[in-house]
Amino acid sequence: AQSVTQLDSHVSVSEGTPVLLRCNYSSSYSPSLFWYVQHPNKGLQLLLKYTSAATLVKGINGFEAEFKKSETSFHLTKPSAHMSDAAEYFCVVSEGSTSGTYKYIFGTGTRLKVLA
Amino acid sequence: EPEVTQTPSHQVTQMGQEVILRCVPISNHLYFYWYRQILGQKVEFLVSFYNNEISEKSEIFDDQFSVERPDGSNFTLKIRSTKLEDSAMYFCASSERRGEQFFGPGTRLTVL
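C-alpha cells for the assembled complex are given below, as produced in the milestone run.
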C-alpha cells in the first residue's frame, strides 16, 4: 500500500520568507502526487500535481514542488510567503485498485502559520 | 468553471437518526468518492463509486453507510443510524479516471 508522510505538523514563517513543507511518499511504482490546501472552514483546493511528466511542478499562487525519486520526496516550496498562505496543506498520493478507481491517500497535514 | 457542490453545508442530527448527504459531481465525470475528516485529523477515504456500483470501500464504510446515484446528477451518502463518532466533515469528490479529483466544499455533520 502507498502512503505519505508529512514531516512537520506545524510550520511558522515570516511574511516574505521562503516556505518549505516536507512530504515523503512510499510507493512501489511511479506515483501520482498532489498537494492540496485547505483554508479554515473551506474545502480542499488543488495546488499542484505530479503525474510522471516534469519533475518540477508549478502550481497556483506561486507554489511549486519537486519530485525526487531517489529521496522519495515531494516537498512543497514557495519563495515568499504571503499572509493569505496561512492554511492546512495536505500531501496526497493516488493509489489504484483492481477495480480501476484511484483513491487518494492523504498525509496528516501541515498547518502553515505566516507571521507579520 | 465546473465544480462539485454539496448540500447541506452543515447538518446537525441526533444519535441514531438517519442522515443523507448530497453531492452533485462535475457533469462529465464518471468516478465518485466520499472522504471524511474528523476534526483535527487527516482526510480518510470512505468509498469510490463507478458504473452504478461501489468500486472500493474502506474499513470505515461499514453496513451503516450506503451510497447511491439516484439520478443522472446526484450522488448521496447515507448513514442509517448515526453515532457520535460519525461527527466529521464529509467531502465528495469526482474525477475522470486517473485524473485529479475535484472536491466539494464539504458537509459538516454534527451528531448530538
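Chain A has a mean pLDDT of 91. Residues 48 and 83 of chain A are 20 Å apart (CA to CA). Further analysis is deferred to the final report.
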